[in-house]
Q: What sequence folds into this?
């Protein structure tokens, strides 16, 4: 009875919350207050898939759900990315019967790394994808080893892991658990040395001797081997090759594939999603065909016009790896360009820590961007970081008042690249200012 009441009240709160813009977490919070073991009481008709990692959780989980739906399966997933316990509870209580049965063929859940152990403490899990483990919001997560230990607590008998063969950290998790690997071969954008300031696996996680890399995709993600013991990159079960960053064409296990968003992250995320779907029983050819029709959310990548100039919006998580990858994308564009760095306080906590900005290799933009505009509540913190990085005053523009930002943009030239490191909710201000009014 308590469970049924929790589901009913949660659904009522969900309905009312839509008018208050609190429909993603609040219903689950209320339901869990009434029935704390709500998640453990659920039963599932189909398979449960979880996606976690430092970067790429939302896009990859939505891509998996898209692939499954395109192949005719019914899917429940937390599309909006509410990945803490309450957000997951909201998704499931709105999809189950009063008896707690979820009748979908698949449940695909994005889950926060640190909260995964709480979400799956008693709840069924069949496939667990870990995209990567990287330095991420140090004030909240500490370091990748701490996060790894938290995720390990979510792994129980019966789970199959899908792991990144290029990541020497995440694949050390739960070595006795069955697993499949995805990875990406060297591309034209791979480097022989790490071009980023953060490299979280310089030594072997087993014997602590120097880790050798044949190439890097980004940060510590690449082809690796320990200089002392036999720890090395395993052979991926699902390998991306022949990557063409101009057209989006590539191959997975020799089969032609395609993406519409041509970043290193997205090629790897797509390969990861394909691996999960195939491990769940779908045919590789069908999975690849479905993945090719997926469009990245406009909240994460969008193009629009600003005063007759092309503007590109890119979501950047508040960690150095994500911002570094957005910078790498900008550097591949040959045209005249202005980069807008929009940074606010750390999401969820309003923590004012900006130490992570000193782990970003902004210096790579020197001589590559005609102007850099610092904006958001941490605009002056970004400007200080860039000044310490050797940027000239003539390149930098600082404006923390969004109402004045369009005027600042009129004094710059070239394509506008907006790298928004915010809560993606409070970035609406910059979009309202820059996007053309309807």
A:
């Amino acid at each position: 009875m308590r469970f049924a009441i929790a589901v009913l009240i949660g659904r009522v709160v969900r309905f009312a919350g839509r008018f208050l813009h609190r429909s993603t977490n609040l219903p689950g919070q209320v339901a869990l207050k009434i029935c704390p073991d709500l998640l453990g009481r659920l039963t599932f008709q189909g398979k449960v898939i979880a996606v976690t990692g430092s970067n790429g959780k939302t896009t990859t989980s939505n891509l998996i759900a898209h692939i499954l739906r395109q192949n005719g399966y019914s899917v429940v997933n937390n599309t909006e990315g509410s990945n803490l316990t309450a957000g997951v509870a909201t998704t499931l209580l709105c999809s189950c019967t009063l008896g707690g049965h979820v009748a979908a063929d698949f449940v695909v859940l994005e889950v926060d790394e640190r909260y995964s152990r709480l979400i799956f403490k008693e709840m069924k899990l069949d496939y667990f994808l870990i995209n990567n483990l990287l330095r991420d919001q140090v004030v909240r997560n500490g370091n990748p080893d701490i996060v790894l230990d938290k995720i390990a607590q979510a792994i129980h008998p019966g789970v199959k892991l899908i792991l990144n063969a290029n990541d020497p950290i995440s694949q050390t998790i739960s070595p006795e658990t069955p697993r499949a690997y995805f990875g990406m071969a060297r591309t034209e954008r791979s480097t022989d040395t790490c071009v980023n300031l953060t490299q979280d696996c310089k030594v072997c996680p087993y014997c602590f001797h120097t880790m050798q890399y044949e190439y890097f995709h980004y940060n510590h993600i690449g082809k690796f081997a320990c200089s002392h013991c036999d720890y090395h990159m395993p052979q991926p079960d699902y390998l991306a090759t022949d990557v063409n960053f101009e057209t989006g064409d590539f191959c997975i296990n020799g089969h032609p594939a395609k993406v519409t968003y041509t970043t290193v992250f997205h090629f790897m995320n797509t390969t990861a999603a394909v691996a999960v779907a195939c491990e769940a029983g779908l045919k590789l050819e069908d999975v690849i065909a479905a993945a090719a029709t997926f469009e990245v959310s406009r909240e994460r990548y969008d193009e629009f016009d600003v005063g007759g100039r092309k503007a590109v919006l890119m979501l950047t998580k508040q960690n150095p790896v994500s911002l570094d990858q957005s910078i790498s994308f900008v550097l591949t564009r040959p045209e005249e360009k202005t980069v807008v760095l929009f940074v606010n306080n750390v999401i969820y906590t309003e923590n004012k820590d900006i130490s992570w900005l000193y782990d970003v290799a902004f210096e790579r933009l020197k001589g590559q961007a005609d102007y850099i505009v610092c904006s958001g509540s941490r605009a002056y913190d970004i400007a200080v970081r860039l000044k310490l990085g050797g940027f000239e005053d003539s390149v930098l523009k600082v404006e923390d008042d969004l109402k004045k930002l369009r005027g600042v943009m009129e004094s710059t030239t070239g394509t506008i690249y907006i790298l928004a490191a915010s809560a993606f909710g409070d970035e609406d201000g910059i979009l309202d200012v820059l996007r053309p009014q309807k």
Q: What stands out?
A: The mean pLDDT is 89.
